[in-house]
Amino acid sequence: MRYLLIILALWLPLQSHAVEFDENTRFLSLGRAIQVFEDPTGEATIESVSAASHAGAFQPVPAGTFNAGYSRSAFWLKVELTYRPTDASIHNDWLLELAYPPMDHIDFYGPDADGQPTRAWHTGDMLPFSSRQFAQNNYLFQLDLPPGQTRTLYMRIRSEGAVQAPLYLWSTHAYLDAQPSKVYVFGLIYGVLLGMLVYNLFIYLSVREVDYLYYLLYVASFGLYQMSINGVAIEYLWPDSPWWANASTPFLISLATLFACQFSRSFLGTAQLSRWL
Predict the structure, then answer these.
(1) Would you say the C-alpha torsion 134, 243, 165, 58 has a positive or negative sign?
(2) Can you give the pLDDT of all 277 residues of the chain as single tens digits?
(3) 7TM-DISM receptor extracellular domain: which residues (predicted)?
(4) To 5 degrees, how large is the angle CA 173–CA 67–CA 106?
């Protein structure tokens, strides 16, 4: 059994291959194409991880999305892309999306003119919003993918919170087409929360009962938490406060939980039954 596991450990990385797509591709999930190298010390460099001798250190991701949970390690992601258009005269622009706004540190390495990886962007939740290549709640990186050539992309991620990397490939036109739907969904969610906030504010001002005050504070803190976790808050509310952008998510969900408990205690009158409830 031990020898079988050793063989599998050596064989699985060799099965990784470049993702091939053509000009008709609009969107691809790259979860199963990602190879991952965990760097517990955080001292690995792009020169060391991109060396041919280091290729065996990268492991495939068995699940559809890389999720390391809570870890202090740095993680290097590697993905190979091959653009094979049926018509070589058609030029498409491509975007790589990391759809996880709370990621603290991201270093994206794209190939230079000679195909060698070089750092293109350093961004993340712990940096000002202006550090992003595109002003979006998720992280977007523009790709230069010549027809018929395989390009290897590297990304180094590290976070004090949960570490996960849902990676997607978009054609630029498809990404722009998808934005109105996302904006409508966000608008619906935050519109409902804002409506609840205003409605309960008027009720509280009318009846002056503490139940409505607790519920009002719960809705406000939960709404801000949703904006923080979705990357909307750092885009519109505190773009130049990376420390608060990183700390606001756990703080706001804790605040929402506190006010939800206080609302439940007040509404149910548990203090009349026991002072410990």
Answers:
(1) positive
(2) 454 434 444 444 444 468 999 889 999 999 889 999 999 999 999 999 999 888 888 999 877 789 999 999 999 999 999 999 988 777 788 999 999 999 999 999 998 877 788 888 999 999 999 999 999 999 999 998 888 888 999 999 999 989 999 999 999 999 999 999 999 999 999 999 999 999 999 999 999 899 999 999 999 999 999 999 999 999 999 999 999 998 999 999 999 999 999 999 888 888 777 766 6
(3) 32-171, 184-276
(4) 60
Is 217 in contact with 257 (CB distance < 8 Å)? no
| Helices then strands, each counted (H, E), the chain | 6, 13
Q: Would you state the structure tokens that stand for residue 4, as one six-digit string?
A: 């079988």
Any idea where the domains of the chain sit in the sequence? 12-176, 179-274
Asked if residue 174 lies in contact with residue 27, where contact means CB atoms within 8 angstroms, the answer is yes
CATH topology classification for 12-176: Immunoglobulin-like (2.60.40)
